[in-house]
């Protein structure tokens, strides 16, 4: 479940969510950081969404309209490049003579066999891959069954809009950096990830996905922090440091350059919601560095 905060997993029951078509737009996880004449709009993304999650809240659309440029985790050029998928596949290749089965506990391998048989998954063709990529593929397949679509994620949505309107779009990091982060999972983490993915491939996993999606739609910072962030920090502490804390720290100088640099351009930054939340998140880190940061949320003020 934790890998939803990584854009690459987006390259990774609609009926249950059909109510969304008749309710208000998602409550945005949107903050505004200011310094002098510069503004950064920070928008927390869910990388896979449903058609019922659109249109977005007016304040999100206003932020995009005000921003002269867009900043995503990965640039649209990389996301659109077949080379990115090829690099991901190459990174997950096991050495000759090795096999996926050898990297899994007997119980996990048995569960994977059962899943493969039930879902027409060609397990023999996956034997040469590391567990992290196979688990990611299964996770994406399960989310797709629930009506979530990477093509509807906020990253691609705003990337397409920016290109249509001629706004410059850049990435905070390179695709290879994300690949290295996933491929850097320890054998124990990969085994745990596979076991958890297979365990979630069913009604319990669907309920957890729906819960997180509902929390994102509600703009519920506390639920996301206590759920996604806390679970990942507890179960995968080393990976949490790499996938969240270290990347946030690496992004901060680039974000500060947008706030401190010359010119008058404003920027909309769209990243996985996890990167904005809690004491490890970009919002608090910018605030701690002296920038004025406020949440933009009309629905939140009405609720207050």
TrEMBL record:
<dbReference type="InterPro" id="IPR047111">
    <property type="entry name" value="YbaP-like"/>
</dbReference>
<dbReference type="Pfam" id="PF01963">
    <property type="entry name" value="TraB_PrgY_gumN"/>
</dbReference>
<protein>
    <submittedName>
        <fullName>Secreted protein</fullName>
    </submittedName>
</protein>
<feature type="signal peptide">
    <location>
        <begin position="1"/>
        <end position="20"/>
    </location>
</feature>
<dbReference type="InterPro" id="IPR002816">
    <property type="entry name" value="TraB/PrgY/GumN_fam"/>
</dbReference>
<keyword id="KW-0732">Signal</keyword>
């Amino acid at each position: 479940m934790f890998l939803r905060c990584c854009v690459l997993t987006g390259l990774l029951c609609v009926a249950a969510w059909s109510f969304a078509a008749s309710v208000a737009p998602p409550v945005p996880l949107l903050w505004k950081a200011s310094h002098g004449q510069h503004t950064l709009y920070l928008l927390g993304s869910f990388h896979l969404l449903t058609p019922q999650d659109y249109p977005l809240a007016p304040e999100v659309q206003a932020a995009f309209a005000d921003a002269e440029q867009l900043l995503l985790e990965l640039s649209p050029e990389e996301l659109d490049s077949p080379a990115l998928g090829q690099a991901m596949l190459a990174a997950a290749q096991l050495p000759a003579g090795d096999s996926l089965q050898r990297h899994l506990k007997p119980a996990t391998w048995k569960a994977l066999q059962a899943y493969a048989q039930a879902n027409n998954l060609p397990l023999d063709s996956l034997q040469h891959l590391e567990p992290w990529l196979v688990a990611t593929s299964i996770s994406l397949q399960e989310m797709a069954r629930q009506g979530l679509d990477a093509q509807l994620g906020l990253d691609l949505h705003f990337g397409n809009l920016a290109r249509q309107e001629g706004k410059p779009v850049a990435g905070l990091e390179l695709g290879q950096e994300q690949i290295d982060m996933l491929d850097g999972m320890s054998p124990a983490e990969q085994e745990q990830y596979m076991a958890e993915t297979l365990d979630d491939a069913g009604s319990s996993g669907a309920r957890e996905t729906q819960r997180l999606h509902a929390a994102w739609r509600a703009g519920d910072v506390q639920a996301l922090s206590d759920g996604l962030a806390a679970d990942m920090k507890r179960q995968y502490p080393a990976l949490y440091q790499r996938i969240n804390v270290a990347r946030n720290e690496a992004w901060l100088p680039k974000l500060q350059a947008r706030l401190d640099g010359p010119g008058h351009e404003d920027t909309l930054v769209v990243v996985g919601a996890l990167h904005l939340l809690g004491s490890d998140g970009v919002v608090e880190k910018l605030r701690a560095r002296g920038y004025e940061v406020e949440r933009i949320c009309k629905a939140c003020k009405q609720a207050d």
